[in-house]
Automatic annotation (TrEMBL):
Segments forming domain Calcineurin-like phosphoesterase: 1-173
Family listed: Belongs to the SbcD family.
CDD domains xref list: MPP_Mre11_N
Protein name, per record: Nuclease SbcCD subunit D
GO function terms (MF aspect): exonuclease activity
InterPro entries for this protein: Calcineurin-like_PHP (IPR004843), DNA_Repair-Maintenance_Comp (IPR050535), Metallo-depent_PP-like (IPR029052), Mre11_N (IPR041796), UCP033093_metalloPase (IPR014577)
The keyword Nuclease is annotated on this UniProt entry: yes
Lineage, broadest ranks: Bacteria, Bacillati, Actinomycetota, Actinomycetes, Mycobacteriales
PANTHER family in the record: COMPONENT OF ATP-DEPENDENT DSDNA EXONUCLEASE, NUCLEASE SBCCD SUBUNIT D
Key word Oxidoreductase present: no
Pfam family, any one: Metallophos
Entry keywords, A to Z: Exonuclease, Hydrolase, Nuclease
Organism from which the protein derives: Mycobacterium shinjukuense
Amino acid sequence: MRFLHTADWQLGMTRHFLAGDAQPRYSAARRDAVAGLGALAAEVNAEFVVVAGDVFEHNQIAPRVIGQSLEAMRAIGIPVYLLPGNHDPLDASSVYTGALFTAERPDNVVVLDRAGVHEVRPGVEIVAAPWRSKAPTTDLVAEVLDGLPPADVSRVLVAHGGVDVLDPDRDKPSLIRLAELDDAISRGTIHYAALGDRHSLTQVGGSGRVWYAGSPEVTNFDDVEADPGHVLVVDVDESDPQRHVAVEARQVGRWRFVTLHHQVDSNREIADLDLNLDQLRDKDRTVVRLALTGSLTVTDRAALDACLDKYARLFAWLGLWERHTDLAVIPADGEFSDLGIGGFAAAAVDELVATARAGDDESAADAQAALALLLRLTNRGAA
């Protein structure tokens, strides 16, 4: 038996910083990752797909998103089993029970809307643990496994949520207990645990049978998601009494959310930053967050701003990570002595220089920005 394990599609997700055409392209990429599972399934001869929760970003999803998402699932061409998760639980407003979803749901799409065993075909079963609220007060996996006896079938648990060994809040009542999973695996009650909620590809424990597939398309920066963009190809050997499992990760994501840390104390270091940004590939599908530190002259700050403006036009998004950016701008002696101005204008520049040197308050920052703009307008701060 071979199937695809995926999770956390979160269709309908928006990223607030994406502007212009970047957000529609990002949304389209998330749908394309879903529709593209059909080609992968055909390549590896997979029988079905399990989606371990958070198919949609939330239950109040736009009708257009629902229709486009269902069409993407139809394109997969083999059975697709959807588990409601914390973003799209089976509550009173569930997208899965709405008129549009139920009317347009393709025949190959099955919602795992009850806890317990679902037959895929003779000899293959899914054990589902769907969410019915955003904040369950119990371990849903422990509940669905409680009293479930081993059987002469291949069983895949499909569940969503954090696992206790990976969560710092070990007392959270909804956490999945790894000991429970390992016990169920050792008894032959289940043979593989397909988990969702963690957006990075992650193996849990040492059995090789408990995995988070992660999100097939990146949703956050690399300090939060270390390894997104995968789908798992899972083989369960039905001829083996122990149901040997083999797992292969396939890269399917096309977008990247990258964080770059740079020291910028001189024009040369700004040029190095420019080179590093230039060498990043697929700029239209790359989001860049910059953590910059350093002390700059106003001339160099103007050159830095020109560099950032240039690449902001090329990348899907580029901006400063404010919490980790610390740039001091200190006007250098004689930096504004050859602008060719006099009288009131020269006096105003001198006053801005004095304010810019005075400290790190808001007025100093405004003066620094004004001086940098002045240099750029006189073409001395060009990248």
